[in-house]
Every structure is written in structure tokens, then in C-alpha cells.
Design goal:
By secondary structure, this protein is an alpha+beta fold. Helix content is about 60%, strand content about 15%. A hairpin with a 2-residue loop joins β4 and β5. Keywords: Coiled coil.
Amino acid sequence: MPPKSRNVNNLATTQTRPSPPATSPQTSGATTPPRSALAIAPSSEKPADFSSTATADFKAELLAALRTEMVGIFKTELEMAMTNNFSQIKSELQSVKSELNANIAAIRSEVDVLKMTVNDMESPLSSCTDDVDSLKSKVDKLSAQLVTLENKCEDLEARSRRNNIRIIGLSEEHGTVDAATVSILLKNARDLGKEPVVDRAHRSLQPKPKPGERPRPIIARLHYYADCVDILRRARAQRWIKVNDSSISIFPDLTARTAKARAAFNNIRRQLRDIPNIKFGLLYPARLRITRGNVTREFTSPDEAAAFVKTL
């Protein structure tokens, strides 16, 4: 913007103002400067200072005008750019909003379907839960009853085998096995005073072995329990007996469950045989008793017995 006109007029007026009349040098003296020189000096410095001030004001006003114009141009271009960008962003946001609304609507419809399904299943599931709880209590009772019945059956089977003995090692070529043959065999093998009364005798129901294989055991039922106890006592004192060409041994006829439980202690019993000053025995049905000095321990678990043997 150009400077104001009043400053220019003032400058012109100042420059054309007449100076005061000069004084004669004769009257003032040789050492005194002329009065015209003293009067003109200040007036010549004042226009120079005023001109520099006017130039500075002009520059300032010009810079302000340029700044205002540049700000306006920048503002206009920025507004145009922002308007274009905002329009594009707005359209993109609108499309995203439409897509989100569609997705939300689809999700809400699916959630509504799931709610209906859950509501339909809630009542049957509740009844099923009650049924499961009832069945669980019944299963627990039946499991307890099953264990009781298994123990009773095991006891009944063991009692039915009380008078039975099992003869191991008699060759298959010995001939027919019957009650009379076993009665004579027991009398001769155990030096009994008389032949024990044998109700039944037969070989086990395993397939007949091939020549050279281990013979099948003989199961015999004695009529009197006292004879059975006496024969087993003699068999513990003398494990193997030579009969003809066979070495036989006699054991009690145990149930499969009891035999398996007792067999679990076989390895431990072999270890105990190598330890001095140890007495041990396998009690019915499957209890290992170990005595060392005045200390006696009984074990029904093979693992606990093995851990104890390691400490000996």
C-alpha cells in the first residue's frame, strides 16, 4: 500500500521553507560564525531524519500489505484444498458408515437368531443338567454296589477253592489224571499216613502242550479241609518233590485276582532272599510281611514294599 499523502506534503513544505537573513561578518567579529550558518544547520538535519522515518514506515506498511495478501492467498488455497479433502474424506466415511451399518444389521440379525436358539435350548439343557446330576448320583451308588458285589464274588470264589490244591510239574506222559490217581500221588509224595479223600481232579483247561513244553497244572479238590491244610504245610516245608521222572510242587488254588495280586510281590521276595537277618512271608490274600529284628511291617502295595526294601 502507498504511503499517505500528508507525509509527502509535509516533507515538501519543510524542504521549501526560507532561511532567515544572514548577518554581516563585520559586526559579529572574526571568531563568531555567521548566524545564517547556525540557523541553517538544524534545518538541514531534520529533513534527513524525517525521510528515513518515512522510508521505514513505508517498508513496514508494504510488508504488512504483502503479508496480508499472502495470508489471504494461502488461506484461500488451504480452504480449497481442505474443502476437496474434506469432501473426499466425507464420502469415504459415508461409505464406511454404510458398510458398518450393513455389517451391524447382519450381526444383530445373527445375534437375534442365536438368542432365540439359546432360549429354545435353555429349558431342555436345564432339565438335562438335572438328569445328569441324578444319573451321576445313581452311578456313584451303582459303582459302590459293584465294588461290594465284586468283593463278595471274590470271597465266594475263594471260599469255593478253599479245599483245592494245584499240583505243578507232573508230566503229561504220567497218564490219566483222576481222583484216585491224585490221592495215591499225594500219599506217596508227602508221606501221608493214609490216602486223602479227593473229590475231583483234572488238569487245567489250557490246550495240551507240545512235547518239551511245560505241562499243565493239576487241580484237585480234597474232601476234608484239614487234609488240604496239612498237605500245603508240608509243601511249604519242602517245595519240590521228585515223583518218578517229574519234580512236582503243590500250591493253594487261588482266584485269578488274588494270584495276580500275590504275583506282584515276586520280585520283592527275590530281593529279600538275598538280604541277611530278614524274615518275610506272603499272607492271604496278598499281604507281604517283613520282619527285621523286632520290627514287623506289612504291605499291600508292591511299590511301598519296594521302597521299604531299598532302605534295608
